[in-house]
Specification:
The structure holds three protein chains of three kinds. Chain A is of the alpha+beta class. Chain A is built from three helices and three strands. Chain A has a domain at 5-43. Chain A is 30% helix and 9% strand. A two-stranded antiparallel ribbon of chain A has the order 2-3. In chain A, strand 2 and strand 3 (88-92) form a beta hairpin. Chain B folds into three domains: 4-291, no CATH class; 298-412, no CATH class; 420-476, Arc Repressor Mutant, subunit A (Orthogonal Bundle). The mean pLDDT of chain B is 93. Chain B is α+β, with helices and mostly antiparallel strands. In chain B, strands 1, 3, 7, 8, 9, 12, 13, 14, 15 and 16 form a ten-stranded mixed beta sheet that branches. A three-stranded antiparallel beta sheet of chain B has the order 6-5-17, with no helix packed on it. Chain B has a two-stranded antiparallel ribbon with strand order 4-18. In chain B, helix 9 runs antiparallel to helix 10 and helix 12 packs across helix 15. In chain B, a hairpin with a 5-residue loop joins strand 8 and strand 9. Chain C has a domain at 2-256: Amidase signature (AS) domain (Amidase signature (AS) enzymes, Alpha-Beta Complex), CATH 3.90.1300.10. Chain C has an eight-stranded mixed beta sheet with strand order 4-6-5-10-11-9-7-8, sandwiched between helices. Chain C has a three-stranded mixed beta sheet with strand order 1-3-2, with helices on both faces. The longest helix of chain C has 22 residues, at 369-390. The model of chain C has no long low-confidence stretch (mean pLDDT 97). The chains are: A alpha+beta, B alpha+beta, C alpha/beta. Chains in contact: A-B, A-C, B-C. The interface between A and C is large, with 53 and 74 residues. Strand 3 (88-92) of chain A pairs antiparallel with strand 11 of chain B, so a sheet runs across the interface.
């Protein structure tokens, strides 16, 4: 199944990726190939088969005791941040 | 009768009162300096993983059991994918297809005293997002992720409310319930309890729902009412003038008293939910659920019923007194200390005490006037040491000084006069001083009875026992 | 020649003070430096920290203390977070990212006394089968530098093959330990999903990723894995079960072990020279007393399409956190928030990562979720069921690790599907969460060939045992590329 240019652009937008106009045909072609390839799954008879989200069967979520174990390390953590001020991470103005 | 019917469903977000976050060991305390309570997991750092907080699960189950819902033996955490700066991972861990709580109901009482049952579709566990700060940063927005990862239950109602008032009653009831259950502090200013309202209108009698607008993040009962009223009026006006309601997210502006479209959420969202592979299915067994059930407190409806039966209160008073667990506990402590006077206790708690708390902006649990103190005052009314009127004076002094009723009565000499001789002497003095009024009264001006009561009370600084005074006046005035 | 010793021998010599850790670290660092222009196996070389750690290890050893790997040099794949050390994941996105914390695997190996020499190159975010997607340039195969080392743990495999380190950590999402191990002629093990903590391992596809080790021999791998494995309360998918001593019983006889030949792996895509080596290896097992029979897993051919739905779906979400706000690459002078997101991510990620993010976004999006994502998860269960049935009949499954030996740089970059199909034999073990190994078993046209061994859940010991017995009979694992011998 061939993906349209608009579909590729929409996917890129959902994924917050900016594709240059010149790149789009390449992505369009690659993604169409991939979509065709995974389309093979249609052949499989999966009637009555439950989806498998985890590779190990029968495991359940473990629970953590409600304890505060973390200390304030914001200065260390913010060393990787591109832009901070007064302890806040900064981004261009968000309009609500 | 309006030609339009309003349809409202609420999504209430209640922050769970855990010490640590839902998936990390960072503190949840409110008001810390920015990002000082955001650990690597909350920040969505590369490589970190979530581990579920046991207490958040217990609290969600507590809520489910309290509303008579089904507790899922098997529930699943899912990722809701979208980009927003207050959402560090680019997805919110929530529950989608298999929530922990499904079904259930909340009973509300309408203005006319009738009851209505509002269905709760589901309640699911999820993590809160951080906060965006816009003030004082010029062209920038600051992101504080202290709140990110705070556990929430999102309580989704059926679209069964038909007016803003019903919505408020429902929200208040849920608020009462979560505080009873001690799963949420209910602090709306701090955002611990907030809601999104889905509002639509349809022609009265129509089957099909109208297109709804979702008003996001309303954090006061008053705003819920106003926002819905505004939105209903807006939609009706729009339709009646030939327009169409569009499905969209709106924001309530309390300063302007109106809702407006949120530009940032305009585009159709495609959240791409899928089961979070970092978390396994949450499995709860019967024994666990029963242990949570066994630890449930008496719930507001049951408590109100008991107050009616046990203390002979009206349904209305019982409802008021059970609106919060602190208030109910306070009332019961007072009522138990003055066992013959449960109604007197109710009147004082809802009257003088509520007014005084309200005036000082205090909560019942503030400890300003312990229940045994108020009971001490009511005991003096019950044993006729003081009259109800003097009691109000004593109460004011108690409130101001923190002293006991007895100490104040003693110090101010407010003890009621119950000696018949003393009251008689006071009556005789008043009669002697007011011959004109006395003869008028005797000539048939019955209304002057009150005048004599007032004069004697004045002469005794209000301390004459009112019942005795009445009786003696009736005897003496006619001559 | 110190570098030709196995890790097992080096650990013993350190313990008996026949060799010092500083001496070892210096020797391996010199080899690393010398190899970089040709192989580019390392993204970062942490000489200073390594020497300090080696000195501490020598002091501990002199005092008769120290862990099981005290003073042993190792390398970490650059997707394990290392406190205070740059952790790039092979991406421009994390080019300057200094992790504030250690991955559990890193902390455990540190506690065992291992000395990190540096961070190993890899395909960007572990997405690739040739190491050509690294932002830091491709790694080259030490057997022939015109060829790829495989991926995504290409740096780990090349470094061990050239004996730049005695062992290295690696990760495997769809074959990223086994395929490069096969291409480079070294031993690699991907443990059972949940056996090794994923905490601090930068996620690609959470339900498939598993940390493991690449070493010169099964015994060496067992020695390292024994320190890495085990329950971690920070990873909800980590399994709370005791870790057996992987070194115990390695020498036990193989007689009676039932080996299944994975029929679907001997398909028409398999290179005949490669096949011959694998069949000769199977004959060795037969001589050792194991029984062989063919086993068919009919749903296995759908592994690759299942994988290319599930892995991109999970990655599209896992990589959403790279938004230029808290860490990682940020574009210059963003006009607004959307511009910040889009340009930071587009500049920070390479083409293959973008392709996978977009594929994953597509298969999860409204209208396609059922047809692709849910369908793939259903087929995944069929594949897991095939394995479960097979392990009712046999103790181990064997077959080739890859369809061909290492290919030339650039040979498969034009078409993503061609590249994806290189993982055709390795992906199924990840889908089912099974432990799997690749063991050197010969040379096809002068290039290493890998024998793949797959076991049931938590049967690492069984795998290591079989591999070790094979390595007692053969010397393929001891061959070192001429230039590095």
């Amino acid at each position: 199944m061939a993906l349209t240019r608009a579909q590729v652009e929409n996917i890129a937008h959902l994924a917050r990726l900016e594709l240059e106009a010149a790149e789009i045909p390449q992505f369009q072609q690659n993604l169409s190939r991939i979509v065709d390839f995974i389309g093979e799954l249609e052949r499989a008879d999966t009637a009555g088969v439950a989806p498998m989200a985890h590779p190990l069967p029968g495991l359940a979520q473990r629970l953590r005791p409600d304890e505060v174990t973390e200390r304030d390390e914001h200065e260390l953590y913010q060393r990787n941040a591109p832009q901070v001020a007064s302890g806040l991470y900064l981004v261009p103005k968000v309009i609500e | 009768m309006s030609a339009w019917e309003t349809v409202i469903g609420l999504e209430i977000h209640a922050q769970l009162a855990t010490r640590s976050k839902i998936f990390s060991g960072a503190a949840t305390a409110y008001g810390a300096a920015p990002n000082t309570q955001a650990c690597l997991v909350d920040l969505g750092y590369p490589g970190v993983l979530p581990v579920l907080n046991a207490e958040a699960v217990r609290m969600a189950v507590r809520f489910g059991l309290a509303i008579g819902a089904r507790i899922a033996r098997h529930s699943v955490f899912a990722r809701k994918n979208y980009f927003y700066p207050d959402l560090p991972k680019g997805y919110q861990i929530s529950q989608y297809e298999l929530p922990i709580v499904a079904g259930g109901a909340i009973d509300i009482v309408l203005e006319d005293g009738s009851a209505k049952r509002i269905g709760v579709t589901r309640a699911h566990l999820e993590e809160d997002a951080g906060k965006s700060l816009h003030e004082g940063l010029g062209s920038l927005t600051g992101i504080d992720l202290n709140r990110a990862g705070t556990p929430l239950i999102e309580i989704v109602s059926e679209p069964e409310m038909r007016s803003a008032k019903e919505a408020v009653a429902y929200m208040k009831k849920v608020h009462t319930l979560v505080r009873y259950l001690e799963i949420c502090d209910g602090n709306m200013q701090e955002g611990s309890f907030r809601c999104d309202a889905n509002v639509s209108v349809r022609p009265a009698g129509a089957e099909k729902f109208g297109t709804r607008a979702e008003i996001k993040n309303i954090n006061s009962f008053r705003y819920v009412e106003k926002a819905i009223q505004y939105e209903v009026a807006r939609q009706i006006e729009l339709i009646e003038s030939g327009g169409k309601v569009v499905q969209e997210t709106r924001l309530y502006d309390p300063d302007k008293g109106e809702t407006r479209s949120m530009r940032s959420k305009e585009e159709a969202n495609d959240y791409r939910y899928f089961p979070d592979p970092d978390l396994l299915p949450l499995e709860l067994d019967e024994a666990y659920i029963e242990s949570v059930r066994a630890a449930l407190p008496e719930l507001p409806d049951a408590k109100a019923e008991r107050f009616v039966a046990q203390y002979g209160l009206s349904a209305y008073d019982a409802g008021v007194l059970t609106a919060s667990r602190d208030l109910a506990d306070y009332y019961e402590a007072v009522a138990r200390a003055v066992p013959e006077q449960p109604k007197l206790a109710a009147n004082w708690v809802m009257g003088e005490l509520a007014a005084a708390l309200n005036k000082d902006g205090l909560e019942i649990g503030s400890g300003k006037l312990p229940a045994e103190r108020l009971a001490g005052l009511l005991a003096r009314i019950a044993d006729q040491t003081i009259s109800g009127k003097i009691a109000k004076e004593v109460f004011e002094a108690m409130w101001a000084s923190g002293q006991s009723a007895d100490a104040i009565i003693e110090a101010k000499g407010l003890k009621q006069i119950t000696d018949t001789g003393a009251i008689e002497r006071a009556i005789e003095e008043v009669m002697a001083k007011n011959p004109a009024q006395l003869s008028d009264y005797r000539a048939g001006k019955d209304k002057l009875f009150g005048f004599f009561v007032g004069q004697v009370m004045k002469a005794t600084q209000g301390k004459a026992n009112p019942a005795q005074l009445n009786e003696l006046l009736k005897k003496k005035l006619p001559g | 020649m110190i570098h030709r010793q196995t890790l097992t021998q080096l650990a013993a010599d350190l313990r008996t003070r026949k060799v010092g850790s500083v001496e070892l670290v210096r020797a391996f660092l010199a080899r690393i430096e010398a190899s970089q222009p040709a192989l580019n196996a390392f993204v970062s070389i942490t000489a200073e920290q390594a020497l300090a750690a080696a000195e501490a290890a020598d002091r501990a050893l002199a005092a008769g203390r120290g862990g099981a790997l005290e003073g042993v040099p190792i390398g970490h794949k650059d997707l394990f977070c290392t406190a205070g050390v740059r952790t790039t994941c092979g991406s421009r996105m994390l080019e300057n990212f200094i992790s504030p914390y250690d991955a559990t695997v890193v902390a455990r190996l540190k506690a065992a006394g291992a000395v990190m020499l540096g961070k190993l190159n890899m395909d960007e975010f572990a997405m690739g089968s040739s190491n050509e997607t690294s932002h830091f340039g491709p790694v080259r195969n030490p057997w022939n530098t015109a060829l790829v080392p495989g991926g995504s743990s290409g740096g780990s495999a090349a470094a061990v093959a050239a004996r730049l380190v005695p062992a290295a950590t690696a990760t495997d999402t769809g074959g990223s330990i086994r395929q490069p191990a096969a291409f480079c002629g070294v031993t690699g093990i991907k443990p059972t999903y949940g056996r090794v903590s994923r905490y601090g391992m930068i996620a690609f596809a959470s339900s498939l990723d598993q940390g493991g080790v690449i070493a010169a021999s099964a015994e060496d791998a067992a020695r390292v894995l024994r320190e890495m494995a085990g329950f971690d309360p920070r990873d909800s998918t980590s399994v709370d079960a005791p870790v057996p001593d992987y070194l115990a019983g390695l020498d036990a006889p193989l007689a009676g072990v039932r080996i299944g030949l994975l029929k679907e792996f001997f398909d028409k895509g398999l290179d005949p020279h490669y096949e011959r080596c694998v069949r000769e290896a199977l004959a060795v097992f037969e001589r050792l007393g194991a029984s062989l029979r063919e086993v068919s897993l009919p749903n296995i051919p759908l592994s690759v399409p299942v994988y290319y739905v599930v892995a991109p779906a999970e990655c599209s979400s896992n990589l959403a956190r790279y938004d230029g706000v808290r860490f990682g690459h940020r574009c210059a002078e963003a006009r607004d928030l959307e511009d910040l997101y889009k340009r930071s991510r587009s500049e920070g990620f390479g083409a293959e990562v973008k392709r996978r993010i977009m594929t994953g976004t597509y298969v999860l999006s409204a209208g396609y979720y059922d047809a692709y994502y849910l369908k793939a998860q259903r087929v995944r269960r069929l594949i897991a069921g095939d394995f479960e049935r097979a392990f009712g009949e046999v103790d181990l499954l064997m077959g080739p690790t890859t369809p061909t030996a290492a290919f030339a740089l650039g040979a498969k970059t034009a078409d993503p599907i061609t590249m994806y199909l290189n993982d055709i034999y390795t992906i199924s073990a990840n889908l089912a969460g099974l432990p799997a190994m690749s063991v050197p078993c010969g040379f096809a046209a002068g290039l290493p060939v890998g024998l793949q061994i797959i076991g049931p859940h938590f049967a690492e010991q069984r795998l290591l045992h079989a591999a070790h017995r094979f390595q007692l009979e053969t010397d393929w694992h001891l061959r070192i590329p001429g230039e590095y011998a």
